[in-house]
Specification:
Largest sheet: 9 strands, mixed
Number of strands: 11
CATH architecture: 3-Layer(aba) Sandwich
Order of helices and strands: EHEEEHEHHEHEEEEHEH
CATH topology: Stationary-phase Survival Protein Sure Homolog, Chain: A
Strand order of the largest sheet: 3-4-2-1-5-6-7-11-8
Distance between the termini: 55 Å
Bound molecules: manganese (II) ion
Number of domains: 1
Structural class: alpha/beta
Length: about 240
């Protein structure tokens, strides 16, 4: 099996090497990752300037390339360079990607880009507690997830979130009840107003959701689909006359 590994935290993220280490148990592993952090860029692609990629030396001797672009660019260029690969892995993101985070996550976007190009893809993100992650507790679970999702008849796009102390694995749905971003205003030394998105703690996630799984120390596996069409509404509306 040939595996392309990418991320949105950049080529020197410790989570990237940790994921590549697990991936290499399953096959030939090649890394294409952004040359600087691209968190929260979503599925942006670069069209107004040229892209380049360059070989870099990484820990553990992985074949790795840095790209002057977004996570989605990295996957596109990686597939251009390599031809077909069997699996694309993105992460391990430094922080979870739960609920509404999926909309702006660069980690998930790299996996989506893989699926657009026809390759099964898995996004991995890990809850952080303020300390440098070691990934030792998570690595066996990552291996179990890769084994499961490459065993045939599995969803082609899965968003995986890893808790600090995993005790099991479960399938979940995306939590859409809440949004945890709020705008915080501050003032800089020159008296100018600045604005930050800040996370606010959420309570009572719905049972069976990605957020609920993390609260229960379970590795969350959310199958995602590429179609954004609201089929329920479309079925209700199809055939209705639209008056101008
Ligand atoms: Mn990130």
């Amino acid at each position: 099996m040939r595996i392309l590994v990418s991320n949105d935290d950049g080529i020197f993220s410790p989570g990237l090497v940790a994921l590549a280490e697990v991936a290499s148990e399953f096959g030939e592993t090649i890394i294409f990752a952004p040359d600087f952090e691209q968190s929260a860029v979503g599925h942006a692609i670069t069209i107004k300037r040229p892209l380049q990629y360059h070989r870099v030396k990484l820990m553990k001797g992985f074949e790795a390339y840095r790209v002057n672009g977004t996570p989605a660019d990295c996957v596109a260029l990686g597939l251009f360079h390599l031809g077909n690969v069997d699996l694309i892995l993105s992460g391990i993101n430094l922080g979870s990607n739960l609920g509404s985070d999926i909309w702006h996550s660069g980690t998930v976007a790299a996996a989506k880009q893989g699926v657009i190009f026809g390759t099964p893809s898995i996004a991995f993100s890990q809850v952080l507690n303020g300390e440098e992650p070691t990934y030792e507790k998570q690595k066996p679970y990552i291996a179990r997830v890769i084994k499961l999702l490459t065993s045939g008849n599995q969803p082609p796009l899965v968003n995986v979130n890893l808790p600090e102390n995993p005790k099991g694995i479960c399938w979940t749905h995306q939590s859409v009840r809440h949004y945890n971003g709020k705008v915080v205003e501050s003032e800089d030394p020159n008296g100018r107003r600045n604005y930050w998105f800040a996370a606010t703690p959420l309570t009572n996630p719905d049972e069976g959701s990605d957020r609920w799984a993390i609260d229960h120390d379970l590795v969350s596996l959310t199958p995602l689909r590429m179609s954004l069409t609201d089929d329920e509404w479309l079925n209700r509306l199809t055939g209705q006359i639209i008056e101008s």
